[in-house]
Design goal:
Blueprint (H helix, E strand, L loop, with lengths): L16 E5 L3 H12 L3 E6 L2 H14 L4 E6 L5 H14 L5 E4 L18 H22 L5 E5 L22 H26 L4 E5 L4 E2 L2 H4 L6 H8 L5 E2 H4 L1 H8 L8 E6 L4 E6 L9 H15 L18
Parallel strand pairs: 1-2, 1-4, 2-3, 4-5, 5-6, 6-9, 7-8
Antiparallel strand pairs: 9-10
Helix pairs in contact: 3-4, 4-5, 4-10, 5-10
Length: 318
């Protein structure tokens, strides 16, 4: 891996089609960097006004950029399916999917349109379903990669198979940590299944450290304790452009390893430049990963196949 890798080290993305979920923060910075590198970037999010604003800002920064917005609500399986259908109808292939968007620690338990706990449903299940819908396009991509964003919070996470949606007990950070651990498990399991099925799609995980985004303003609220910390102690959070580097490295660097996990290199992986991140023990259990995958298929109806050995359900082949 390059020392102090930055977006300036990114190889040209000209001719590559890249989908990034999330219109602000890390999603915006990733889209901007990829557009600068010549990629055909699709920013996907639930708010059209914010999406078009992000597109306009990127076009201002990168005149002639190939950048567009696609409506996607990760908290609604119908919206995810509709987005997948539109992209399938309008694109020949997708080369990179960055599963970035998320929600963090709403103070009270909320649910998605399909009744899932909001953080588990949006951060993990929404991206699980989106990846399933886009897998046929990814299989046709050139050096196709799926990059899924986890978090340092995954270290404290536990998959509670008896209460995945926090119906018995809801604690905001506990639910967030579970969702981000699930994202990491998914990234590793997707690589296992890709290897088994020979579909050629590379799956890599990344996390941004502690970055200056609007997550803590949007969910807990600007005047909550976490929101005030984000506002008043802004200097403890690295810029969003810096936080985007591990995902950009995973998405574009030639030396990024399939099945790898990347995060910042300093202060306990909270800031710095991309390096191999420490994977929590709970993310490495293939039996638990298979169990989570099967439960996720049941909940979302995603056409991934119901077990690792199910030949009829190979990745990207409904």
């Amino acid at each position: 891996m390059s020392v102090r890798w930055t977006s300036k080290d990114m190889p040209s993305q000209r001719g590559r089609t890249i989908v990034v979920t999330g219109t602000g923060g890390l999603g915006f910075e990733s889209g901007l960097a990829l557009a600068r590198a010549g990629g055909d970037v699709i920013i996907a999010g639930r708010n059209p006004a914010r999406g078009e604003e992000a597109v306009a800002r990127i076009r201002k920064e990168v005149p002639g950029a190939a950048i567009s917005f696609e409506r996607l609500d990760l908290a609604d399986l119908r919206s995810i399916a509709a987005c997948g259908q539109r992209l399938t109808a309008g694109r020949e292939r997708i080369d990179v999917l960055i599963n970035n968007a998320g929600v963090m620690t709403p103070p009270r338990r909320e649910v998605t349109a399909d009744g899932f706990e909001l953080q588990f449903g949006t951060n993990y299940l929404g991206h699980f379903a989106l990846t399933a819908h886009l897998m046929p396009l990814l299989r046709r991509g050139r050096d196709p990669r799926v990059v899924t964003l986890s978090s340092v919070a995954a270290r404290g996470g536990r998959i509670d198979f008896d209460d995945l949606h926090s119906q018995q007990r809801y604690k905001p950070m506990r639910a967030y940590s579970q969702s981000k651990l699930a994202c990491l498990i998914f990234a590793f399991e997707l690589q296992r299944r890709s290897d088994q099925d020979g579909c050629g799609v590379t799956s890599i995980a990344a996390h941004p450290g502690v970055s200056r985004t609007d997550l803590l303003h949007n969910a807990p609220g600007r005047f909550s304790a976490p929101g005030l910390a984000r506002s008043l102690l802004w200097f403890l959070f690295q810029p969003a452009a810096q936080g985007a580097l591990p995902a950009l490295f995973a998405a574009t660097a030639r030396e990024a390893r399939k099945g790898g996990y990347y995060g910042p290199d300093r202060l306990g992986e909270t800031r710095g430049y991309p390096v191999d991140a420490r994977s929590p023990t709970a993310s490495l259990d293939p039996v638990a990963a298979g169990r989570l995958w099967d439960r996720s298929v049941e909940m979302t109806g995603a056409m991934f196949g119901h077990s690792r050995g199910d030949a009829a359900g190979k990745l990207g082949q409904p």
